Amino acid sequence: MIFQEFQFDLLIGHRILLTSDGVHDVITKKEFRDLSITSEKIEDFGEKIVKLLKAKILTDNTSFIAISVV
Length: 70
Known about the structure:
alpha+beta
């Protein structure tokens, strides 16, 4: 197994998005950024990701976890 360790400072309002390759292979960083900026709540952000995934041609399974720092 390969483990990567990292750390960074998080502030209130920051978001973390963990995705499988089935998600980040079809949604660009710019699309993620735009969806996040236009989503006040983390639930809205997740729903917009699901909607965008449904509009894409998928060749792999998709999984993601969206986390908001409060």
